[in-house]
Structures are given as C-alpha cells and as structure tokens.
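Field: COMPLEX_INPUT
Field: COMPONENT_COUNT = four
Field: RESIDUE_TOTAL = 1168
Field: MODE = joint
Values follow.
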Amino acid sequence: MIRSLLIANRGEIAVRIIRTCRDMGIRSVAVYSTVDNNSMHVQMADEAVCIGGPQSAESYLNSKNIITAACLKRCDAIHPGVGFLAENAHFAESVEKAGLIFVGPKPETIALLGDKIQAKRLAKEAQIPVTDGNEMPIEGVQEALRVAQAIGYPVILKAAAGGGGRGMRIVEHPRQMAELFPVAVREATAFFANGSILMERYLTKAKHIEVQLVADGSGSVLCFGERDCSVQQRHQKLIEESPAAKVDRTLIEHMVQCSRDLFSRIGYRGAGTVEYLVSNGSYYFMEVNSRLQVEHPVSEAVSSSDLVRLQLLVASGIPLSTNQSEILLTGHALECRINAISTGKITRFIPPLGPYVRVDTHLYDGIEVGPYYDHLLAKIIVHAPTRNQSIATMKRALQELVVEGLSTNQKEQLAIIDSPQFKNGAFDTGIYRQTIEAQSCKNT
Amino acid sequence: MIRSLLIANRGEIAVRIIRTCRDMGIRSVAVYSTVDNNSMHVQMADEAVCIGGPQSAESYLNSKNIITAACLKRCDAIHPGVGFLAENAHFAESVEKAGLIFVGPKPETIALLGDKIQAKRLAKEAQIPVTDGNEMPIEGVQEALRVAQAIGYPVILKAAAGGGGRGMRIVEHPRQMAELFPVAVREATAFFANGSILMERYLTKAKHIEVQLVADGSGSVLCFGERDCSVQQRHQKLIEESPAAKVDRTLIEHMVQCSRDLFSRIGYRGAGTVEYLVSNGSYYFMEVNSRLQVEHPVSEAVSSSDLVRLQLLVASGIPLSTNQSEILLTGHALECRINAISTGKITRFIPPLGPYVRVDTHLYDGIEVGPYYDHLLAKIIVHAPTRNQSIATMKRALQELVVEGLSTNQKEQLAIIDSPQFKNGAFDTGIYRQTIEAQSCKNT
Amino acid sequence: MYNLDLQTILHAFEHYPASELELSCASFTIKIKRNSGENLPHVQTAEITKAETVEHRKTQDTSIITSPIVGTFYLTPAPDAPPHVQVGDAVDSGSVICTIEAMKMMNQLEAEYPCEIVRVLAGQGSMVEFGQPLFEVKRR
Amino acid sequence: MYNLDLQTILHAFEHYPASELELSCASFTIKIKRNSGENLPHVQTAEITKAETVEHRKTQDTSIITSPIVGTFYLTPAPDAPPHVQVGDAVDSGSVICTIEAMKMMNQLEAEYPCEIVRVLAGQGSMVEFGQPLFEVKRR
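Field: COMPLEX_OUTPUT
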C-alpha cells in the first residue's frame, strides 16, 4: 500500500487529494512554485517542496524536479491530479522508471488514448458508435475538403494529440476550410507539438455525456454513473450533473456497457472517463480521459464514494473489492465551477455550507490569485434526492458563496442554474450561448 | 403549503432552517435579541424582527413578541428550532390560537410526552421495556428510600417535567438520599416550575441510543435510523453517530418497531425521537423528544434526506409520500459538536470542507460569541461508507477546522474521536470520563 | 418592564380610566381591579408599559423613546379617538403616549420622564419591533 | 537555466573534464561530446547549471546563491574527491561551486559572477529544493 504520496499539482485538486491522504493515513508531500508558497495545498500537506518558478514549464510541468522531490522525500507514489502532467505518458513512464508508482493508467494506455485517431479506431473495434470522420491524419486543405464533403458539413477539426478544447475549429461551409484548417494545424502544433488533425461530423444539438469508470487492470471495471457536462463555454465545462436529465436510460445503459467493455478490452487501470456526444437518440464516442477529472465529485456524490481513494488503492495493486451491484447511485448531484475572471487578492471568502453541500477549494482570506495557472477557484457540489431539489440547493449555495477581491463567474452560474432551459433539462451544448450570451446581448 | 415561516430561534439551527426555506422557496423571517443584531441568521433570513433584550426570557422565550412578529410579518407558521420554546406545549398552543401553524407535534402531544412519568406509563402500555421506577411522583425522602430499596441502587432522580440533564442526581447509596433528593426537588422546581421527581434504576454500563422518526399524524410513521449518543459530558451530548456501533441489529430493529408503534398509538405528528438506554443486551425506554434534535443531521446523512423539509411538509398537512422501504440508510455518519468554552469575538473561522463533510454553523469572521445563549458554535457532520472511514474523515475535519478568538472543545473532540475506546465502538456513556477526564488527571 | 415598583403601578392605574389591570413580567405578576362598572371599548386587557429610553438617533439635546415590545403602533387609543399626544405636547412622567397592539391586546406606553414630543418616528398602524424608535422627545 | 547562450555552454564544457554533456530546457536541448576516452566516475551525464542569485538572507554586502533545481547537494564532485570550494575561496565567474544530484544525474552549479565563499548554507548530501540558499558569497 502507498504510504507516502507526492501530489504533482496545485489548487483545489491538490487540496482534495491531500484530504483523502489524511483520511487514509498516507503522508502527503506537496510541490509548489515560488508564487504558490502560501497556497493552501502547501499548508495542508505534511511536507512541501519548492520545484521552480511561476511559469508552469519551470515548476508544475518540470517532471525532473517533481520526480527528484518524490525520490528525495521518500515517497512511493506520485498523483498527477488533473491537468499539468496528468495525461502525459512520458511523465508516467519517467515516474515508473524512477521506481515510483504513477497514480494513473499505464503509460502505454495514456499514450494510446491520447492519440484521438487511435482512440477512435479502438472504439470502432469495440463496436462503439463513432461520428463519421477520418481515420488517418489529414494532409492539407485539399484532403480536408474531400473528407468534409464525404462527412457532410458542419465538421469539427480537432488536434489528434490534444484535449481541453484547444485547437478545435468548427467548419460550417467549404469556403471556410482554407482559412480554418491551417489555424487548427498551427494551434495543434503549438499546444501539443503535434500538428495531426482529426475531422468529425459536428453535431449541433448534442449533449455531452461521459461515463465515470475505475478499473483495477486485472479484470474489474466499475462504473460510477454518467455525467452530463453539456453546460460549456468555449468547450470548457462549467456545470456537471449526474444522472443526466432527459436522456433515455436505456441509451445510458448501453453507453455504460460500451465503456466498461472498452476498458476491459484494453486492460485499463485506474480512474478514467469515456466521453460521448448524445444527439437525436444516438450516442457517439468522443474520447477517453485517462485520468481523474475536475468534475469527479459529482460521481462521488451519487455513489457515496471517494474516487481518489480508489485510485490510490488500485495504484497500490489492491484489486477492487466492490462489485458493480454494490455501487448504489442515489439522488441527483450537481457541480458548479467557480472561475476567476480577473486576478486579485481574496479579501473575503465564505463558502456555502449546510445540508447537501460540498465545497472543494483552495481559497482562503488573503490568498493571491495570480495569472499563471488555471482560473478554477472552487467547486460547489450539491447532492439531493431529486434534480429539482439539487437545483434549488445549488441556487441557495451560489447565493451564499462570498468571494471578494476579484471577479468570478458566480452570477453567470446562478443565471444558468436558474434558467428555464437548465431547469427543463432538455438542453444541449448550446445552452451557455442561449442563456448567458443571449442575455448579454439583451442587456447591451 | 407554508409560504412564509418565522424561525423562533437563533444560532446554527436558525441558519440551518433558513437554508431549507431557501431550498423550498419559503420566505423566512428571523427573530433576534438586541445582542444578535449581527447574527448570521438575521443576515440570511428574508426579513428579521428584533424581539427583545439579551436575556432569553426577554427575547427567544418571549412568546408574545414572537407570535406578534409572526402575525405582523404575515407568516403562516412558526418553527421553534431546538431548545428555547421547542418543547413548550403552552407556546405551541398560543401559536395555534393565533391562527398560525406550529411546526411540531400537537400541543397536547408535547404536554403528554413532556411529563416523564406519563410518558413512561405510555411506553409501558405500548409494551416497551422501561427501567424499574416509580409511577407516581415521589413524596419526600422516606418514600424515595422505600422506592430505591425496591428498585436497587444506584438509582437516578430526574425532574418529571424536565430534560437536558438538569435536576438529575445519581444516588449510589441510601445514606446519600437525604441530601440529594431535596436538591433534585429544588432544581426541578427552579428549572421547570414543577418539583415532581421520577426515580429509576441507574444503568451504569449503558449506551444512549435513540430512534429518529417523522410522522404525519395520519397513519404514516417513518424511521430514519438510530443514533448512538453515548458520548456525553454531564448528560450533554458531544458526539453522535449512526448506525450505532457494537449493538446487536436485532435489538435495534426491535427498538425501531417499538418506537414506530408508540408514535402510531398516540397519533404523533412531526419529527421526534425516542430515547433508550441499551445495557447488557436489553433496551429500556427513556423519553420522547417531541421536536427536532441538534443531532438530526446524522440521520439526514445516512438517509440522504432533509428532516426540516419533512417537518415543513407535514406541518403543512401534506401526508408523507415516502414508504419506509424507500428510505435507504447508507454508510456511516458522525457528528461532533464544537462548543465554546469561553466567550469572545471570532477573529478567524475556517470550516473544514471537501468530500464527506458537512458543516452547520452560524460563525463568521468578526461575530461576537457572548454569554447569553447556548455554547454550540458548529456541528461537523461526516458521512462515509464505513465507520472507520467516518472516523478518519472526522479526524481530518477536526484538524482542518480553525476557530480563533475564543476557546473551544475542538481538541477534546479530537482526543475522543482518536481514542481506542471510541474507535472500538463498544463504549458506554462513561466514555467521556474514561478518555478526557482520565487524561486530564494524568496531565496534572 | 424596567424598574417598576408597586407604587408606580398603582399610581399609574389611579390616573388612568381602566377598570382592570393585569401585568406580568419575569419577576412578578400583578392584577388590579377598580370597584366601578366603567369599561374601555376596544381594550380587552390593558398593560401599562414603561418605555425604555435608548440614547439612539438623538439629535442635540433630544432623546428617543423606543418600543419595549413587538406590535402595531397607534397614536390613538381607539380608531375614532384623538391621539394620545401630538408634536409639541408637553407630557408628564407616567402619561400614556401611544398604544401598541400585540395579540389583540392594547398596550399603553407611558412616558418615563417629563418631556416634550419633538417628532413621531413610527407610522400610525405600522409594525414596530423591540427597540424601534417611536418618539423623539426633549426632556423637560 | 537562465540566460544560457551557446558560447557560455561551450566555454563551461571546455573547462570541465566531462566527456559528454546533455542539456535540456524549455527553449532548447543541446548535446556535446568530447573526442576522448576519459570518463568521470559516478557521473553518467553532466549538466551545467548557472545559479540564480536571489537577494535572500543576505547580510550586509553579501549575496546568496540558491539552488536552481531540486536535488541532493554535494560540495564534492565525487565521494572521495576534495570539495569544489571551501569557505574563504575566491571563485571566478563560471567556476563550479557544487554538485546537485537529481535523477542519478550530477549537475554542476557554476558561479555567475566572481565572488568569495563566505558560508556554505546547505549540508553535504542534504536535499535542496528550488530557490533554497546554498552559499553566502561576497561579490568581488
């Protein structure tokens, strides 16, 4: 069993992982950049090591300093958190080469699933429906036009090596291709050092549904329900819920079965998510996130479980002792991400409390929120018996939350939660545009 | 349905009730004494009315000002919270006479159960085991000695009209009776304006177990599990858990059945608790608390429900729509009460957050904790899959909690939670003495 | 109910046309009846309440009389009756200056000291809470 | 890796007995080999690192040299070798002042400017983190 864990991350996710370490009696070692020396994760961990300057490349992406810190602090494992090095196969490999446990999938699994074209091929082999698209990287605008013609417009261009909405371009008409294809290639090259571009049919009225799994790499694959993450702003998730509203349960069951089969087939180990688009009563494989996700607490809430704990057990080589039938999904859970939309020093922070509410955050009075990292300040998670009650409780929580010293998206989140579109449940990924952007237009 | 609720209480319980009001879209009206004008419940409620000076008798026990405020603020109901007027039949009656809904049992039920001798008679009629004791108030020391002789020492003297540990005296030997009996009568007279004394056999190695019920007064009585409240300091509960550890489940099932039968028999309406002592594999009826209890979140956690919501629905005359079989009790929940052991101004308050943790409190930076009321500052509730995980999470939460500006029992609570006696689960109401007082002796 | 003694109560009762008086506070309860058939309309029971004076919102040399209870404020003893006091009135200690209705009981509020009414701070028929300013007065 | 240019690296490599050098940073990677059979024991690869100077814990006219990486601090290039520098030594810009081991690689830290070693602040064989003070020096 892992006894000492280095957490190669910062912010709320580092704090969240440290909490599980404390629950499990595991010694936690934080790493931090010079601007994070007062961060909550540094204060909460049993020990902390400064690993570099403010720029991520110097610190949180500095695998050498991170692995050296883990070795010298006598850790036996590294948890990459979410973001930074979490989906970096090379890092996972280096961790293992240093004789440490990487809390995540095997490096080759990460590499395999990190290439979207390969992943899609894999999904097809596992009989999972995929959207029409190319199976080889597209070479130039001419080929792009030919493929798009075959698929039908609108199409979406994605970096084959990428994720997180970067490098994505939607092409609605052939005349846009000559302009947008090179942009996608440039962004893919810049962000992922790989200019390979994947093209797919773009589904306009689709829900983003994902299935949360944990597998032990030796036969057991458990599902912790699905999440609807359709509330997105520029492909960045804002609100997640489980179970999904207004989606046929039989469809969900099929998606769950497909996802479990896929994980079994590739001998997946660790926590992971299979993402789908659901449109017109059909579902289409999108990608696998071979890591923990920001929105994992939604699934923890409905399944009354601790996914980080399971990650640590599986990484320690302990097979999953639970059966799928023992995972009871109860009630309805919602998560709102509270993002900073400016930098500043937090002058007052009051988290919402009380029944049905969980808060994951690294904020405290006096902490500086700088420009260097992710803008996620806090996650508010509610879990109530019904979707209506969840919505009411989330509204209450968002109204209670106080963050002073910088601007956040708190009011915007409240507007979405309180909108008829969201309450109705039958929304798609266009809901942000329909509620917030439409509202802003009206106001100006 | 209740649309506007006056909350005749203060502190964390008032805040907690306001949260459910917000969830249900009910307008909340707070009342406050002159020293509470900055209190969180005043800030959170939709409206607030000052009802008197700092002394409880002038404000939170001033039924006339409270009822007048409810009428003038056009409320249709009053929730008494816990403590103050919550178990006052006369108040409940006045509320109803003023044409308002009293969120609690019928006044006559409160009166009936408030008299411990009558309540015990009732329990006996319902075939619930009771401890040996008198059935009529004891008249003088001579009768007390005679009754005690028949019951067997040690015996406990209790105010027949009382509760909350006041006026209780344990008599271990006949020679103490002449001294202690008059003290009990005096205290009972002073606190409850009723000198009637009840005598019972005192069980030395007993667990305090109680059953949480909600009934709609028209046939449906639901049970939300039991709570073990054996961790007590001078008869004041400190830590509560559900399910109870190291108690035979068949015994618990019998207690649950007895409790439900008793509530059915008397046509109970609202939330209530039947308290028992469990000793040597048997259980004995203690009393009924005809109100919400401080420790209700423990049962909310294991049953994923909101008991205040149910109180408001039942008080609105809406029959309970859930069946007992639909109430799934999952995992294990613990509550620690954080009490002030001095007064002062809160200079820094950081609640524990993250997975499995709920906090109910009225604290915020800058609030003054004065000498006038209850010393309860916050309740930390955790809910995890197993008792061991709950204990670990509670330990983490207690370590995270920061309350600066006054002294609290935080460290004491941590010591109990972390003690072998508590972890083992086989403790009785002597655990506080065994862990904390024994420790203090060692230290001095 | 601040520092009321028996003499003050009896004195007040004597100078007021009520036939019965019942007064309860934390420390005592008192009932007084007058041996006469006269009765006040609109008042089921009367309670004589001494106003607490809080140095609050006061300007220059004025004082504030606040409400000792929660209720509805009336300047008049009954719907068609003239007001107890008007701005400019000089009132004696013990004079009734307003009526506060609570739970269908009419509570008459007395001046605690001789004063002149400078301003009325609560609206006729409005809700007043404990400690709410009712009158601005100038001590005489 | 702060403000390293090719000349600096080649210059350093020339004055150091390593046979191979491989250096990677965010902006570039460089590999250099020397055409000779000589080899350093205990050192698989050597990395030349320029120390970042942080004005930290400095007293009067001294400066602090901090660690640019996470690793194990050694004053000696190898277990039995004499130390790179000692208190009182005057060192030139570019002189190696200590070795920091990280992931089995020996990283030699160079002085960024001519200075005199006033104090050694890290213990032989101890772990050092990024930015940790290693030497107190007096600029020459």
